Amino acid sequence: MIVIFLGPPGAGKGTQAAHIVKKYGVPQLSTGDMLRSAVAAQTPVGAKAKAVMDAGNLVSDDIVAAIVEERIEQDDCAPGFLLDGFPRTIVQAEMLDAMLTKKERGVDVVIELRVDEEALLGRLRRRIDETLARGDKRRKDDNEDTFKYRLQVYCDQTAPLIPYYEKQGKLKAVDGMGSVEAVSAEIDVILDHFRR
Ligand code: ADP
Fold first, then answer.
1. What is the atom index within ligand 1 of the atom nearest the CA of 86?
2. CB atoms closer than 10 angstroms to residue 119
3. Residue 8 DSSP SS3
């Protein structure tokens, strides 16, 4: 089962991904997390990505695709995986299709989390408050201006993936405005078809 999660920043992809990992036993491949690890480990990729990420821009397609390709070759990805934050551009989607075709695999389903943009800013403010309340440091890109910019980047560069996957007959939209449980339930209905 190869699943892609699509949705603007703050749509709840991370929360729902955790649910899918637990229920369906597939690993979550979050390119944001992988890049943040690379930055923390000060790898060459991390060094290149840091300033780009802090500004809310996208890291280059080649870098991200290489990270994903290496990751999906690992054994735990054999039964399937959940992509969270990748692909984020049409070029990345084409690169993904090419790498999966080479392995005689393919994307099963793309779940689009639909949310109201106004609500996203409220969620961001809450996420920042909660992070600070836990005593954790907030992500550099978690501030209102950068967030609005990331939303714009999503609309310009990532939203075109919606018609891309619609044409392939793989897109399933889910209402992301309900409770966490309600959204999970909608996702379950979709994924139960692909369970192996
Ligand atoms: P969120 O889910 O909060 O929108 P992510 O954690 O997925 O954010 O990503 C954070 C940052 O990491 C992005 O703003 C971007 O700079 C970089 N990034 C993550 N995934 C990709 C990708 N597929 N292509 C390019 N850049 C990416």
1. 23
2. 13
3. coil
Task: Round to whole Å and give the CA distance between 174 and 191.
Answer: 12
56 lines ligand 1 (CB under 6 A): yes
Long-range contacts of 32-38, Cβ-Cβ distance < 8 Å, separation of 24 or more: 32/84, 32/85, 34/67, 34/71, 35/59, 35/64, 35/67, 36/139, 38/67
Query: Is the pTM value of this prediction over 0.85?
Result: yes
C-alpha to C-alpha distance for 120 and 148, rounded to whole angstroms: 10
- Residue type at 141 in one-letter notation: D
Identify whether 13 is a catalytic site residue: yes
**Quick one: which atom of ligand 1 is closest to the CA of 10?**
3
Q: With a cut of 90, say whether residue 76 has pLDDT above it.
A: yes
**Band of residue 3 on the pLDDT scale cut at 50, 70, 90:** very high
Nearest of 65, 36, 64 to residue 50 by alpha carbon: 36
For the chain, list the domains and their CATH numbers. Answer: 2-26+79-192 (3.40.50.300)
Burial of 136 (0-12, 13-18, 19+ CB in 10 A): exposed
